[in-house]
Predict the structure of Histidine--tRNA ligase.
Amino acid sequence: MAIQRPKGTQDHLPDGSPKLGIDTRAAAFHFVRETARRILERAGAQFIDTPLFEEADLVKRGVGGSTDIVRKEMFTVYYFGDHGGYILRPEGTAGIVRAYLQNGLKQLPMPLKLWLHGPMFRAENVQKGRLRQFHQIDYEVLGSTDALVDAEAIALMVDVVRALGLKKVRVKLGSIGDPEDREAYNAYLRELFTPHLERLSDDSKDRLTRNPMRILDSKSEGDQKLIAELGVRPMLDFLGAEARAHFGQVQQYLNDWGVEYDIDPSIVRGLDYYRRTAWELHHEGVGAKSALGGGGRYDGLAEQLGGGAVAGIGWAFGIERLLLAMEADGAALPASTGPLLYIAALDEENVAYAAALAREARAYARAEFAYKAMKVGNAFKDAERRGAVWAALIGSDEVASGTLSLKNMETGEQAKVARAELEGFLAGNSSDVAHPPTS
Ligand code: AMP
């Protein structure tokens, strides 16, 4: 058998491919990225790109040594003579904060809004919607602790899913307070779970010493059963006065804007640098355990990476999960688009002339040409297979008179148009020319 792609990766394929799925359709990815770009850039976010691999230390400190990502799911990059100290990035935030610190971005007007899209890598157990190379859209805001920034970030996430046509989406909103609130909560959890140590999974035994809050996040059924039995009090009960006021403001802004959410006390982000607001977006079609995306405030991260104190908040969507949700919701996806104009020469000596016409037309429309002389029937068949709207056949008469004989492949309508009039003709007979596709 020919060599296969690695487990947990996908090819993103052109339209018409025999094995096309919603989450492998390149045009659908492009559509999601473009939709997000429009919404985020209108809100003042600028695009940033960072390397696909980073220092191992950045990932360990940025994601947290007690997380599954760092303990089990990192892809280490080796190359000849190297110590293997690089990691394929599992998420976007740490790299963005590193780039902010390294490139002096604090000189830009604050709050600084950035966005990124690209592949992320985690060596997870592969399932539907859980891949080893997946793709995220990230939005990060640096330089402000204002609750208005938090509310705007959440609202923008909702704007993106609405623009994609998703309906069955819920925002689950929580707060994990300030570091001292979390210490108090962790102390409470330690006391609560220690007498039941033997019932915890091995991972959670470890969490009990390192970071008890992460037990609540456990995927083990036994752990979840114990959590339910013990009637664990939520983090929200432990918020201090400032964190409580901040959380109240975030909710107030969301209420003002009509952004719906459910308060979910089970949202925990157990890492040291997370502060206050944390949330997830869920969709019925993708399953309860699999969020479409999540976000949180991380005011302690820049210091964790060795920089000065920089407030930050951000979120990430998984594009594959957005696409699965769009399919489940029957949301409209971009139609596949063939050429507006397809030009074929009927004689070998006119092939280059037809190609020149198509190249000229590309100034205002999608235009393709046949690479060989075609018989009339074959030319129309080829135009149809490629999804062309107008087909033009070029014979010696058309060359001599400087005209095109056009046929509309959808209606059968025919027209003879002078070469110089082609742009005007196509504009009058198609919405595509007036609104050329953007790249
Ligand atoms: P996280 O960085 O873990 O909060 O993930 C943010 C979003 O990325 C999730 O809500 C998913 O939509 C997506 N995501 C995370 N891990 C995977 C994965 N292994 N496969 C596909 N999507 C993922």
